[in-house]
Design a protein that fits this description.
Chain lengths: ~190, ~280
């Protein structure tokens, strides 16, 4: 916290480096977080605000204060499920979901410490399933996720129940033109 | 009427009952559905969460498979959202569109009409729907549940709001809908797998308030919500959650409804029999 306060006072002293992080985000995503008027509407409607370390409006405030490390290592950016309830009622029309997407991609790129590692592993499991088949294969995602997080017995009974209700297919449904899917997943410089 | 149809992964796998009931409904309403050939996953929430470019390309590939001047009907609100978002994004980024059109040798239409099945129903004459009904939903008290379907981020806020369409549809067949607070509360999507305690709390709150408001069941338009509400509810007394197409299918006279409900984790058949709907 001391570090945060010293960064803050430093930033206020040196006007030229103010809003550096906010400008970086605007360049990457086109979202102007300086528009936020701190009405706290987003945090009051967010269904998962209670599980977050900073509710959305406070996270935006931290960006305005240029506290880059605090923002990028917060659990908020990982717990956001992208339901758009916040941006739906934001009087300043800030696309908070895109903002979270952008912050998440910066955190991944800079190999930040991730406070909710299971969530990232889940996303990676889904992405690898889409990359392999072009569509999601729920059973494979569940198994892949379990092997990544090593939580083999969590939700074991639920999995069995879903299998017995034929909610989980054993074989994936596939896209025929797999080359196009592989191309989408390839890095742009590889094309 | 002929419509192009994008089922999406949920309806093709975990929510087969929703797909099957939709097929029954379209049969009764003389709609012809043609699957988009070789469609792929829209990326769901995970793609845009960690790789925005991949998410955009996945949605655009689906869009490029839609023949020119055709209407695309989508059943999953999240897929629909991704379609709408990607259409707006290539309007802002024509360079990306040029690259992808070149690569796939197929045009991408950012102005193609992409709608939810609820919108198709809303456009129909209510008298026509009523005339087709063979059963009634009299006595059934329903909590309409939309989840995040009603939220529209700033980029696509000009699109139609679906609020009230489930109520209108269900009430036209004799059901009563209750007023309740959590009809737009998010079900938690992927947190159901990655952080179950947070989802359990949200789901219990949704189902708990629906029951307090006097509802006997929930009706949703999203297959993901339906699944989360069923698997993550830890309340002692539970109420079933229907896909809106299931109730619609029963009303229109579908006979294979029993096979749909074998996929439900909370059995809704006792409720329907109790109300003498089936």
């Amino acid at each position: 916290m001391e570090e945060q306060i010293s960064t803050l006072s430093l930033n206020i002293k040196k006007k030229e480096i103010r809003f550096k992080f906010a400008k970086e985000i605007e360049r990457l995503s086109g979202i102007d977080v300086m528009r936020c008027i701190q009405c706290q509407g987003c945090s009051s409607v967010c269904p998962f605000a209670e599980s977050m370390d900073y509710p959305p409006n406070r996270l935006i405030r931290l960006i305005q204060y240029d506290l880059r490390d605090t923002v990028l290592s917060s659990s908020t950016i990982w717990l956001c499920v992208g339901c758009h309830t916040c941006s739906n009622q934001c009087p300043q029309a800030i696309d908070i979901v895109s903002l979270m997407d952008t912050l998440r991609s910066i955190a991944i790129e800079e190999k930040r410490n991730i406070p909710e590692p299971t969530i990232l592993e889940f996303h990676r499991s889904v992405m690898s399933s889409i990359e392999n088949h072009g569509r999601t294969h729920k059973l494979e995602i569940m198994m892949d996720y379990k092997s990544r997080t090593r939580k083999w017995f969590e939700d074991f009974n639920l999995g069995l129940k879903m299998l017995s209700r034929r909610k989980l297919d054993l074989t994936p449904s596939r896209v025929k033109n797999n080359r196009e899917i592989k191309e989408i997943f390839a890095r742009s410089w590889e094309l | 009427m002929k419509l192009y149809y994008y089922p999406g992964c949920s309806l093709a796998t975990t929510a087969k009952e929703c797909n099957r009931s939709l097929m029954e409904v379209t049969k009764f309403l003389d709609l012809e559905l043609i699957d988009i050939p070789d469609w792929n996953c829209c990326g769901s929430t995970s793609a845009h969460s960690i790789e925005r470019r991949v998410a955009l390309d996945l949605s655009l590939r689906n869009l490029s498979l839609l023949p020119r001047d055709e209407i695309l009907m989508v059943m999953c609100p999240n897929c629909l959202h991704n379609f709408h978002q990607s259409q707006q994004m290539i309007k802002l980024d024509p360079h990306r569109r040029f690259i992808l059109e070149n690569r796939w040798q197929r045009p991408i239409d950012p102005n193609a009409t992409v709608i939810h099945f609820l919108e198709v129903l809303a456009e129909m004459d209510p008298k026509f729907l009523k005339a087709k009904a063979k059963r009634e939903l009299k006595g059934l008290k329903i909590a309409p549940y939309y989840g995040c379907m009603l939220s529209r981020p700033p980029l696509v806020s000009f699109h139609r709001c679906y609020r009230g369409l489930i109520e209108k549809l269900m009430e036209s067949f004799g059901a009563k809908t209750v007023l309740w607070p959590n009809l737009t509360k998010c079900c938690g999507t992927f947190l159901s797998a990655a952080k179950p305690p947070a989802t359990i709390e949200a789901v219990n709150q949704i189902i708990g308030t629906a029951m307090e408001s006097g509802a006997q069941c929930l009706v949703t338009a999203c297959a993901m919500c339906q699944l989360n509400l069923e698997i993550r509810c830890t309340l002692k007394e539970k109420i079933p959650t229907f896909h809106f197409t299931e109730l619609l299918g029963i009303v229109l006279g579908a006979e294979d409804w029993q096979s749909w409900f074998t996929h439900h984790l909370v059995d809704p058949v006792p409720l329907l029999e109790n109300k003498k709907i089936v």
